[in-house]
Amino acid sequence: MSELALSESRAGSAPAPGASPVAAPPTPLIELRGVSCGYGDRVVLRDVDISVPRGTVVALMGTSGGGKTTVLRLIGRQIGVMSGQVFFDGVDIATLDRDGLYAARRRMGMLFQQGALFTDLSVFDNVAFPLREHTDLDEEMIRDLVLMKLEAVGLRGARDLMPSQVSGGMSRRVALARAMALDPELMLYDEPFAGLDPISMGVAATLIHDLNEALGATSIVVSHDVDETFSIADHVVFIANGGVVAQGTPAEMRASTDPLVRQFVDGKADGPVRFHYAAPSAADDFRVKAADGDAKP
Ligand SMILES: Nc1ncnc2c1ncn2[C@@H]1O[C@H](COP(=O)(O)OP(=O)(O)OP(=O)(O)O)[C@@H](O)[C@H]1O
After folding, report:
1. Residues of the chain above pLDDT 90, percent
2. For helices 198-215 and 139-152, angle between their N-to-C axes, nearest 10 degrees
3. Whose CA is nearest to atom 6 of ligand 1?
4. With left for phi above 0 and alpha for psi between -120 and 50, is residue 36 left, alpha or beta?
5. Which residues are paired to 89 by β-bridges?
6. Which residues pair with 238 in a beta bridge?
7. GO molecular-function annotation terms (predicted)?
8. CATH T-level fold of 25-277
9. CB neighbours of 1 closer than 8 A, spacing ≥ 6?
């Protein structure tokens, strides 16, 4: 499978005087090489290659149940590979011991769809939580950092509210402030636009893009929302049928005539991508032979 085409502007500027004109490209922040994985005996992804260059926003899109969230779990090593390797900053995460893994995870911010806030903590204390848990910073410093993160998501004024007092969209933004409390190098977003109204969706998309720039981070966004996701992604990877079925820039995906890509971009129910979860034959399940008198009662 091909690596992500890295746009020239992102790949780096002109070589310094005296430097080799053909410098090796920087290692991607995340790289999946020949990864197969699944749950129990069930294989979800087969021989998948995905490369996420530093500083970019990469979108994972595709069929429901295709394995997008599974890719995020692989990166955080919440699940392991059956075969292949997952590299974070050039290190195969399977080789990390417990401390190494925790250190790697602290460099990642994860915003999951059900990334619920701690209901008994205020907005302020929710964002302060990772700082108190993982750093030795004094309370004055924590206060400044928390207010900066809340300012970034437009909620500095909501610091004293409890989670039950904020809307769904606000709650997502608080979770985002908490996810980036430790200034992660990598942000993982699982369905950040789900359940948001169109205005909040636009705000969330802009926020993801701007935070990526401001933090100098790299982001992976799992989403079904074509317009919002295409507006902020440098690269889109479509996952279906157990693997990467298409990838490219949003413009390339919009211009593509590949029926598979068209099915995603145009949101068509019918097309080359399977909609149904693997199941016994419909004939067996619905006993269509009953008409012939063959089915058991
Ligand atoms: N903890 C689990 N145990 C067993 N199977 C799982 C588990 N989590 C996910 N799966 C299965 O793995 C497959 C991929 O799931 P995953 O959540 O990665 O898909 P997805 O592409 O993120 O889907 P969606 O877009 O619907 O959220 C699905 O068929 C799902 O049923």
Report:
1. 58
2. 130
3. 39
4. beta
5. none
6. 61, 246
7. ATP binding; ATP hydrolysis activity
8. Rossmann fold (3.40.50)
9. 47, 48, 49, 243, 244
**Do residues 32 and 50 lie in contact, with contact meaning Cβ atoms separated by under 8 Å?**
yes
**Best of 32, 43, 44, 110 to mutate for ligand 1, by most ligand atoms within 8 A of CB?**
44
Q: Are 170 and 158 in contact (CB under 8 A)?
A: yes
The interface predicted TM-score of the complex, written ipTM, equals 0.97
Ligand 1 midpoint to CA 88 (Å): 22
Q: How many other β-carbons are positioned within 10 Å of the β-carbon of residue 242?
A: 17
At 209, the amino acid letter reads H
The three-class DSSP label of residue 216 is: coil
What is the identity of the amino acid at 144?
Answer: D
Give residues with Cβ within 8 angstroms of 73, minimum separation 6.
79
Mutate to test the pocket of ligand 1, among 43, 48, 70 (most ligand atoms within 8 A of CB): 70
**Token pair in block for residue 283:** 């004939």
Residues 6+ apart with CB under 8 A from 17: none
Token pair of 261, please? Answer: 């890509």
> d(Cα 50, Cα 87) in Å, to the nearest integer?
10
Which pTM does this prediction carry?
A: 0.82
For the chain, give the mean pLDDT.
85
Tokens, residue 158: 């909501």
Q: Is the dihedral of CA 81, 84, 88, 91 positive or negative?
A: positive
The type of residue at 224 is H
Name the token pair of 44.
Answer: 């979800």
Whether 215 and 189 have beta carbons less than 8 Å apart is answered as no
* Distance in angstroms (rounded) separating the CA atoms of residues 182 and 292: 66
Q: Residue 262 class from Cβ within 10 Å (0-12 exposed, 13-18 middle, 19+ buried)?
A: middle
